[in-house]
C-alpha cells in the first residue's frame, strides 16, 4: 500500500463510520470544529508509517461531516484519524493533531503488541503504540436462520456472568486455547441449560481498555469503553483481523439454538478517556464538548460516573450514536436486550442537570428497531441521582437495589424490616405504584458483580479489598452482610451449616418474588471472592468462576436448579385457553393473605422477624403457602386451611433447614403431606403447595 497513489473520491456522509461499497471503503466522520482531518491507513497493527490521506475541506466536507471514499481496500483494513482544531481547554476543545484517533463508529479495534494507553495522554505522537479501527463487512455473515428466543419477561431468569472469568480457570474443563473467550462460553452452554436460566447478562463486551486500571492491575470488569460498536478483541480466540466480531456472533447463534437470550451490560455513561488529564484517543480528540458533559463554568470534565468523565447523552450527536450503537448490536449482532450501567446519567442535560423528559432515554424507549428488546436500567448514577421507580419511559425494567438491601436485612434479622420485605416479595408496589400492570418492572437480585458474592455475603461483615492496592478504601461499606460469628472461612460445622441455610433463604426469596430474578455467576456453587466486594481489577482466581466445588457447592447447585424448575413449571401453569400462567401472574391474580405464627395474623411490628403468606390462584386450582422465619429460634406456624374448592392438603416443597436432599423435593417425586401446623426452624424458609399437580411430572420423567 505504501508508496502507491491511492484513488479516492469525495465520498459521502450518509453513513457514519467505514462502509464497504463500490470496490472500496467510504469513511465518514462527524467533526464539526475540525480545521483539518487526515485518514491513516495501516498495513499491520504495528505499522508506524501508514499511508496518510489528507482530506480536502472543499470536497471532503459537508456541513459538520468529513468524508472520503478510498479505492482498493476492504474487509480487515486498519485505519485511524488525526484531527486538527483549536486547543482551548478553557472553552472545552482539546484537539491534538499528533494523536491517532479511533473512529467513534468503528466496529472493531485492533492493538499493537506495545499498546500504551498513556501515550495518548503525553505530549507528542502516539503513532508507535496506538490502537486502530478495523474496516469490517458487517453484512457478510451466515446467521443460519437464527431465531431469537423472545422469552416473556414473566418466565425469564437472568444469569449475570463475565465472559472472561466464566471459563478462564483450568477447572472449567474448557479447551485451553478457548478459555476466557466467546468460543469458550459456547462449551459451557450445557451447564447453563442444566441450571435452568433463560438469559445471560454479559458484563461489558464493548471494546474496553485493559490498561485502564491501577498500576500493576488490569481492567477486569470492562467498565471502560473505547468503542460503543466493537466487541472486545481480547475475548476472542480468533485473533484474525475480523475474527472477534464473527466469534461473538457465533456465540450468540449457539446460545439462541439452545433457547438462551443474550443481554449486554452497556456503558453509555463514560469512556476510557478518563478525566481531562487522561488519554486522547477518540471522542476527546474529535469533539470534547459534544461527547462529554463539561462544567458550565470551568469547562472541565464532570464526573457523574465516578470514572473521570461523563458522556453527554443529551447532545443530539451523542444521542444518535447511542441509538445507532444499540441498533447495531440488535440488527447485526442479534443480541436480545441491554442492561444500562448508571442509566440515570442519560437523564441529565448538557450541563448535568436532571431532565423531566430526557431525550435519549425516551428515544431508546420508543425506538421501533429496539421495540422487542429487553431494556434494563441501573436507575442511579455516581452523582447522587437516584431514579428507581421514576426513570423516564415505560418500557424500562430496573435493577431494584432496594430489593437487594431489604431482603438482605430481613434475612439476617434486622428490626423494622418485615413490611419492607413483604413489599419486595410482591413486586415492590411502594416503588412501582404506577406500574401495576407490569409486575416484571423490578429486576430482583440479592447479589451482582458489584459487591459480595452470595457466599461472601454470609461470611463477611466487612469488605476485604486489600488486593486492589487502594488500602481497602474502595468498594462499598454498606453491604448489609453478616458473617454469622467468624470473619471469613471457618471449619466450624455449625457456622457453615447456618451460612448455607442463609444462602438458600436469600435465593428462595429472590426466586419466589414477583419480578424478573437475576443470579450472579457462581452463586449457585457458592463461589467466593474472599471478601473482595469490588473486584474490578482482579483478572485472576479472585474473580474467576471456580468449577471444582465441594459438598456445599454441589448442595447449593442442586437446590438452585430444583427451585428454578419449580419457578418455571410448577408456577407456570397452563390456563384453559392455552396461555401460560407465570408465577408473577399467579401471585398478582390470586387471593393473597398474610400470616404470622397464627393464620391471618401477621406481625408487622419492629421486633417481628417472621412472616408467612398464602396465595390462592384465581386461574388454576392450586395454592401456595410460604414461611420466612428470620428469627433466631424455631417457631410453630398454624397453617390456614386449604381452600375449600381445592382438593387435598398442604404438601412440603422445600425447607431450607433440612439437609440435602430433603431441603427441596424434586419435581416428579411425591411431596410430603403436612398437617395443620409446621415447626419452622430458626432462620429458615419453607414452601408448601396444594391442588392439582397433574401434568407436571412429564416435563422431567
Summarize the topology.
Elements: E1 8-9, E2 17-21, E3 24-30, E4 36-42, E5 51-54, E6 61-62, E7 65-71, E8 78-84, E9 87-88, E10 93-94, E11 109-110, E12 132-134, E13 158-161, H1 163-167, H2 182-186, H3 189-195, E14 199-202, H4 243-257, E15 261-266, H5 283-291, H6 316-331, E16 337-340, H7 359-366, E17 374-377, E18 397-399, H8 401-412, H9 418-425, E19 442-444, H10 454-457, H11 493-511, E20 516-520, H12 551-570, E21 573-574, E22 580-581, H13 583-588, E23 590-595, E24 610-617, E25 622-629, E26 635-638, E27 651-655, E28 677-680, E29 684-691
Parallel strand pairs: 13-14, 13-20, 14-15, 15-16, 16-17, 17-18, 18-19, 19-20
Antiparallel strand pairs: 1-7, 2-3, 3-7, 4-5, 4-8, 6-7, 8-12, 9-10, 11-12, 21-22, 23-24, 24-25, 25-29, 26-28, 27-29
Helix pairs in contact: 6-7, 8-9, 8-11, 11-12
Structure commentary:
- The protein has 701 residues and is α/β, with parallel strands linked by helices.
- The protein is built from 13 helices and 29 strands.
- The strands form seven sheets. It has an eight-stranded parallel β-barrel. Strands 1, 2, 3, 6 and 7 form a five-stranded antiparallel beta sheet that branches.
- Helix 6 packs parallel to helix 7 (359-366), helix 8 (401-412) packs across helix 9 and helix 8 (401-412) runs antiparallel to helix 11.
- The longest helix has 20 residues, at 551-570.
- The relative contact order is 0.08.
Amino acid at each position: 500500500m505504501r508508496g502507491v497513489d491511492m484513488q479516492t473520491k469525495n465520498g459521502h456522509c450518509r453513513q457514519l463510520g467505514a462502509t464497504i461499497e463500490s470496490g472500496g471503503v467510504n469513511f465518514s466522520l462527524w467533526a464539526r470544529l475540525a480545521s483539518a482531518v487526515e485518514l491513516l491507513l495501516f498495513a499491520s497493527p504495528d505499522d508506524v508509517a501508514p499511508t496518510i490521506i489528507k482530506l480536502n475541506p472543499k470536497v471532503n466536507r459537508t456541513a459538520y461531516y468529513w468524508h472520503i471514499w478510498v479505492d482498493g481496500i476492504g474487509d480487515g483494513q486498519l485505519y485511524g484519524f488525526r484531527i486538527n482544531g483549536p486547543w482551548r481547554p478553557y472553552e472545552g476543545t482539546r484537539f491534538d493533531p499528533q494523536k491517532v484517533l479511533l473512529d467513534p463508529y468503528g466496529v472493531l479495534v485492533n492493538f499493537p503488541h506495545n499498546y500504551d494507553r498513556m501515550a495518548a495522554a503525553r505530549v507528542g505522537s502516539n503513532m508507535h503504540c496506538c490502537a486502530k479501527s478495523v474496516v469490517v463487512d458487517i453484512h457478510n455473515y451466515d446467521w443460519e436462520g437464527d431465531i431469537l428466543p423472545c422469552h416473556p419477561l414473566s418466565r425469564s431468569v437472568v444469569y449475570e456472568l463475565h465472559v472472561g472469568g466464566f471459563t478462564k480457570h483450568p477447572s472449567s474443563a474448557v479447551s485451553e486455547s478457548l478459555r476466557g473467550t466467546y468460543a469458550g462460553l459456547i462449551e459451557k452452554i450445557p451447564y447453563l441449560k442444566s441450571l435452568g436460566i433463560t438469559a445471560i447478562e454479559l458484563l461489558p463486551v464493548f471494546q474496553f481498555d485493559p490498561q485502564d486500571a491501577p498500576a500493576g492491575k488490569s481492567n477486569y470488569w470492562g467498565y471502560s469503553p473505547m468503542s460503543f460498536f466493537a466487541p472486545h478483541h481480547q475475548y476472542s480466540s480468533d485473533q484474525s483481523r475480523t475474527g472477534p466480531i464473527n466469534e461473538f456472533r457465533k456465540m450468540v447463534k449457539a446460545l439462541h439454538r439452545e433457547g438462551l437470550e443474550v443481554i449486554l451490560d452497556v456503558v453509555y455513561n463514560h469512556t476510557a478517556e478518563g478525566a481531562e488529564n487522561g488519554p486522547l484517543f477518540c471522542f476527546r480528540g474529535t469533539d470534547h464538548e459534544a461527547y462529554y458533559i463539561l462544567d458550565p463554568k470551568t469547562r472541565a470534565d464532570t464526573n457523574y460516573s465516578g470514572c473521570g468523565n461523563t458522556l453527554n447523552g443529551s447532545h443530539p450527536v451523542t444521542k444518535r450514536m447511542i441509538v445507532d450503537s444499540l441498533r447495531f448490536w440488535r440488527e447485526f449482532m442479534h443480541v436480545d436486550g441491554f442492561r444500562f450501567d448508571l442509566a440515570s446519567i442519560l437523564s441529565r442535560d448538557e450541563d448535568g442537570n436532571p431532565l423531566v423528559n430526557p431525550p435519549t432515554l425516551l428515544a431508546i424507549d420508543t425506538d421501533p428497531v429496539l421495540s422487542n428488546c429487553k431494556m434494563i436500567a441501573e436507575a442511579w448514577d455516581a452523582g447522587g441521582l437516584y431514579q428507581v421507580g421514576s426513570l423516564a419511559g415505560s418500557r424500562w425494567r430496573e435493577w431494584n437495589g432496594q430489593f437487594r438491601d431489604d431482603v438482605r436485612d430481613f434475612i439476617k434479622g434486622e428490626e423494622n424490616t418485615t413490611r419492607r420485605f413483604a413489599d419486595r416479595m410482591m413486586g415492590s408496589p411502594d416503588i412501582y405504584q404506577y406500574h401495576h400492570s407490569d409486575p416484571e418492572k423490578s429486576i430482583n437480585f440479592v447479589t451482582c458483580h458489584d459487591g459480595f458474592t452470595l457466599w461472601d455475603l454470609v461470611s463477611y461483615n466487612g469488605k476485604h479489598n486489600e488486593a486492589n492496592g487502594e488500602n481497602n478504601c474502595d468498594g462499598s461499606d454498606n453491604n448489609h452482610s453478616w458473617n454469622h460469628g467468624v470473619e471469613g472461612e471457618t471449619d466450624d460445622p455449625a457456622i457453615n451449616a447456618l451460612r448455607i441455610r442463609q444462602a438458600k433463604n436469600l435465593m428462595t426469596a429472590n426466586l419466589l418474588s414477583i419480578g424478573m430474578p437475576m443470579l450472579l455467576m457462581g452463586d449457585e456453587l457458592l463461589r467466593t471472592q474472599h471478601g473482595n466486594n469490588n473486584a474490578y481489577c482482579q483478572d485472576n482466581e479472585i474473580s474467576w468462576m471456580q468449577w471444582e466445588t465441594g459438598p456445599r457447592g454441589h448442595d447449593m447447585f442442586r437446590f438452585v436448579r430444583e427451585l428454578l424448575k419449580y419457578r418455571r413449571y410448577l408456577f407456570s401453569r397452563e390456563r384453559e385457553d392455552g396461555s401460560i400462567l407465570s408465577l408473577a401472574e399467579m401471585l398478582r391474580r390470586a387471593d393473597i393473605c398474610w400470616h404470622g405464627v397464627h393464620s391471618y395474623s401477621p406481625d408487622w411490628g419492629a421486633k417481628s422477624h417472621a412472616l408467612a403468606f398464602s396465595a390462592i390462584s384465581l386461574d388454576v386450582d392450586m395454592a401456595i403457602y410460604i414461611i420466612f422465619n428470620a428469627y433466631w429460634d424455631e417457631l410453630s406456624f398454624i397453617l390456614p386451611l386449604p381452600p375449600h374448592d381445592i382438593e387435598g392438603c398442604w404438601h412440603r416443597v422445600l425447607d431450607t433447614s433440612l439437609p440435602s436432599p430433603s431441603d427441596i423435593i424434586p419435581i416428579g417425586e411425591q411431596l410430603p403431606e403436612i398437617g395443620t401446623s409446621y415447626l419452622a426452624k430458626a432462620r429458615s424458609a419453607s414452601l408448601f403447595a396444594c391442588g392439582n399437580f397433574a401434568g407436571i411430572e412429564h416435563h422431567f420423567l
